[in-house]
Specification:
Length: 237
């Protein structure tokens, strides 16, 4: 497996602390681990760094071990370790959100803390009215410069759905190096690659208008009819 470490430069550490200093409401981070996990320690290190970098009480970290907390694994839909979740599983990172993905993770935390997704009102209304469960997988890698933006867009869809009381949209950011079988399932050659309800629909960074249209088709049970879009702004694995 590609060796993945949580490492930041001094400037990146300072930028993170400065960003988190502006948090408004507390945000809870759940970290799911097990004993035989090669990147779980790095993931816990990442979560603790975020907690220590934020104002006191603004970041709450809870760690769940697979051997002891199977019920919470099932409740939040966690099947692999490490996994990091926000909003009780509405947003999940299957694999460590390291490298470039760390930026998107911090921005996700900030928007949740501020209570603002940044999405258009029309998009938020459509997400509030979903009738079916929508499961979105964003396949990413740590070096990918476009992946954090694709992840953030999907995460904010999940946030709006959760905020509006729907909770039918789940955003799963899948780290391909740690989960190669999940990448192989969609024949991923470039990242970000996005699948909605098990159907690969985007390569590259989608725009909000296209993304919500595809989600609406999935809500109608017709996602298979949608043609996959290749935006060209993707990077090889």
């Amino acid at each position: 497996m590609y060796p993945i470490k949580f490492e930041l430069s001094d400037d990146e550490e300072n930028d993170t602390r400065e960003t988190l200093s502006e948090m408004v409401d507390p945000v809870e981070i759940h970290v799911f681990v097990s004993n035989n996990c090669s990147t779980c320690e790095e993931t816990m290190k990442l979560a603790e760094f975020i907690k220590d970098s934020a104002p006191e009480g603004k970041i709450i970290v809870k760690v769940f071990d697979k051997a002891k907390n199977q019920a919470i694994f099932e409740k939040e839909g966690v099947r692999r370790v490490p996994t990091v979740t926000l909003l009780d599983g509405a947003i999940k990172y299957t694999g460590i959100p390291a490298g470039e993905e760390f930026r998107g993770f911090i921005e996700t935390i900030m928007r949740i803390s501020e209570g603002e997704s940044g999405l258009e009102d029309e998009t938020a209304e459509k997400l509030a009215n979903l009738s079916k469960n929508i499961y979105v997988e964003v396949i990413v890698t740590p070096p990918c410069p476009y992946c954090p933006y694709a992840a953030l867009l999907s995460n904010m869809f999940a946030f709006e759905s959760w905020k509006k009381g729907s909770g039918k949209y789940v955003s799963d950011i899948v780290e391909a190096y740690e989960n190669p079988d999940m990448a192989d399932r969609y024949n991923v050659q470039s990242v970000p690659t996005i699948a909605i309800n098990d159907v690969k629909v985007f390569i590259g960074l989608p725009v909000e208008e296209d993304f919500i249209n595809y989600v609406e088709y999935a809500d109608l049970g017709e996602i298979e009819k949608m043609k996959m879009k290749d935006y060209g702004d993707a990077t090889g694995l």
